[in-house]
Design brief:
Elements lengths: L1 H10 L6 E12 L7 E5 L4 E4 L4 H11 L4 E7 L4 E7 L9 H6 L11 E2 L2 H10 L10 H16 L4 E7 L1 H7 L5 E9 L3 E4 L11 H5 L15 H5 L7 E7 L5 H10 L8 H11 L1
Parallel strand pairs: 6-8
Antiparallel strand pairs: 1-2, 1-4, 2-3, 4-5, 7-8, 7-10, 8-9
Length: 277
């Protein structure tokens, strides 16, 4: 049996697997040297496009302006192989209720203050774990916060962890953001509730260390552009927001229009349930 296994490996020395992503492109981070271009997908994934692949880069740049939705095939290291435009079957247009709520300018969000860490742990253990394995973090986080709000009227936060181009290229990292719920504890600050990647509540630095291999601190900023236009200064940034925020585009919209999301949006919840659970 051992001899057969060795012969098998010799016969297939470069076995690899492909991945298929269905997403629009959020940002294209063009390389200025020989490193790959980065395609940052709406679903949080990163695709590496060879620097010399000018034809495909031009295709994505032209298609991005029309908000195209793609089926992108990569190898198991997220290196680009092929892509085609596809029709997205789920309607993600902003609802009338969202457009109406954006007329309310500069409304502050006051999170619920928990009495103790044990209260936070109780909430953590109630978070459902029957999510789909390949689900997206922003959809899991949206349902977790929504269901706890329905259960106990808890007004929680979310922490968006953004990975910079510097970090992504240095570690060939496959995500450009991650998000999960957080709660505020009286006298102790915020605690992270990431039911997918941790076994209990975490302090912020302990949580980011699970994803930041360099163990560098992630500065907390409050504007999307503080992350977007400082890609070479840090390995990561954190942006805390209210539980109503769903995707990075919500943060960008807030900063651009000067408005806060003040409620959950039914169309977003429907999509989050469909994709994550």
């Amino acid at each position: 049996m051992k001899t057969f296994f060795i012969l098998f490996l010799m016969a297939f020395p470069a076995l690899s697997f492909s991945r298929v992503y269905h997403s629009a492109i959020h940002t294209i981070d063009e390389s200025i040297d020989d490193s790959p271009h980065l395609l940052l997908l709406d679903n949080g994934s990163v695709i590496f496009l060879k620097n010399e692949n000018k034809e495909d880069l031009d295709f994505f740049k032209e298609s991005k302006s029309s908000s195209s939705y793609f089926e992108i095939t990569t190898d198991d290291e997220n290196n680009f192989i092929s892509a085609r435009s596809v029709t997205h079957s789920v309607n993600l247009e902003n609802s009338i209720s969202q457009r109406n709520q954006e007329k309310e300018l500069n409304l502050s969000f006051e999170p619920t203050i928990l009495n103790s860490l044990s209260d936070a742990s109780v909430i953590f253990r109630k978070m459902r774990r029957d999510y789909q394995y390949e689900s997206q973090c922003y959809n899991r986080a949206h349902i977790w916060t929504w269901e706890e709000f329905n259960r106990s009227s808890l007004k929680s936060k979310k922490y968006f962890l953004f990975f910079t181009s510097r970090y992504i290229r240095a570690y060939r990292y496959h995500w450009w953001f991650h998000v999960t719920p957080a709660v505020s504890v009286n006298g102790l600050g915020d605690r992270i509730l990431d039911r997918r990647y941790t076994t209990d509540i975490k302090m912020i630095k302990d949580w980011t260390d699970k994803f930041i291999y360099s163990k560098r601190r992630c500065p907390i900023v409050f504007k999307y552009n503080d992350y977007r236009y400082n890609q070479e200064l840090e390995h990561c940034y954190l942006i805390p927001v209210s539980m109503y925020f769903w995707q990075p585009r919500d943060i960008e919209r807030r900063d651009r229009l000067g408005v806060e999301k003040t409620s959950f949006i039914r169309s977003e919840l429907n999509y989050a349930y469909w994709e994550a659970f």
